[in-house]
Structure formats: C-alpha cells, structure tokens
Amino acid sequence: MCLSPSLVLEHLQRIARVIKDYLGVLNEDSLRKNFVLVYELLDEVIGYILTSEIDGTIQMKSYLTGNPEIWLALNDDLNIGRVGRSIYDYSSSYGSGAVILDDCNFHELVHLDSFDIDRTLTLVPSNGEFSVMNYRMTQEFKPPFRINALLEEVGSHKVEVILKFHAEFSPSITANSILV
Questions:
Q1: pTM of this prediction?
Q2: How far apart are CA 166 and CA 142, in angstroms?
C-alpha cells in the first residue's frame, strides 16, 4: 500500500497532540509513567481502518489437452468503474449483491464478446498458469481479517510488538496463500 509521507506525518503529529492533551507534557518520563494510558490511546487511534483496498487477480492453471474453449461466468451484478459515484454510494440500482470494481484488465487470451451482456469471459487457455483478470476495488467493505496489536515493553529501549489476526468470515470458507 502506498501512503503519502505527508499523510503519515500528519497522523503522527495528531497522535502526539492527543497524547500531550492527556499527559499535559510529552516527554520520556511522562510516557514511562503513563505507559498503559498511552498504549490504550494508541490502540484506539490506530485500531480504525483509514483506507481499504483490494488488489485481486483471478489465476488459472490449465493442463487440458485439445485446447477446449472455457466460459467463466462472473457475478451478474459486477460493475466496472463508478461513473461519478461516491465510493460510499450503495444506491438501489446496483442491488444488494453488487460488486463494484474501480478498474480491471484481462489477459490477451480472454475474449470479451459477451462480457457486457452476461458477464461471461471466453478463452482457450494455453498450458500453464496465468492471470485471467486483475482488478482493484476501493469501496468500503468489511475486511476479511481483524488485526490486534499488542505492545510490550521488554527493556529500557526495547518494545515487542505482537500481531494477532482473527478471521472475520464463516469457518466453512477457506483462505489460501495469505501474506502478512
């Protein structure tokens, strides 16, 4: 994820201002004496998601003989681009199951003849693995994982950070190849 350096500095400055408002003065001694309070403040300030984005891909592995034609049907409510809509606009014209992608691109083997009509991709895959479709989505969504951070002072100049991940989806759904 690419963040603007000025956004990061602004966020750090606001955190420092909040801590100073609670402690009265911001120095090493006041931080040590109020470590638990500062930890709880950081947990509240950093616990919220500032932005959410999905960069996804549909990968295909094909070792079929005879080069058969394959049809891949996507969600009927798939919309590409917002056409002037706000990212928080969930108007009823899209329906409740709508998937709104900011943009996408397709592999050169994909034929888009019927894509605009019924959201079907047609292709004759070559042998091996390739990306059928790459897409990006920045609309507000419930993230699949919740991340909790635990800070623990383990020395005079050392803090240990423990990250705990919790899946926010049904146990019947699986996730593969997750990178942290």
A1: 0.51
A2: 13
Query: What is the distance between the alpha carbons of residues 59 and 131, in angstroms, rounded to a whole number?
Result: 4
CA distance to 12, 27, 96, 117, 152, per residue, from 73 (Å): 45, 59, 19, 11, 49
Phi-psi region for residue 28, left (φ > 0), alpha (ψ -120 to 50) or beta? alpha
Place of tokens 């602004």: 10
User: Do 121 and 74 contact (CB within 8 A), yes or no?
Assistant: yes
- What is the identity of the amino acid at 143? P
CA distance 72 to 142: 26
pLDDT digits (tens, 9 = 90+) for 135-170: 988 876 666 777 777 777 788 888 787 777 777 777
Is residue 163 within 8 Å of residue 148, measured between CB atoms? Answer: yes
Secondary structure percentages of the chain, helix, strand, coil, to 5: 25, 35, 45
- For the ranges 6-10, 38-42, 47-51, the lowest mean pLDDT is seen at 47-51
List the one residue out of 167, 151, 133 whose CA is nearest residue 38. Answer: 151
Q: Are 106 and 133 in contact (CB under 8 A)?
A: yes
Beta strands in the chain (DSSP E): 54-62, 70-73, 78-80, 99-101, 103-106, 110-111, 120-123, 128-137, 145-155, 158-167
Under 8 Å between Cβ of 18 and 41: yes
Q: So what's the pLDDT on residue 49?
A: 57
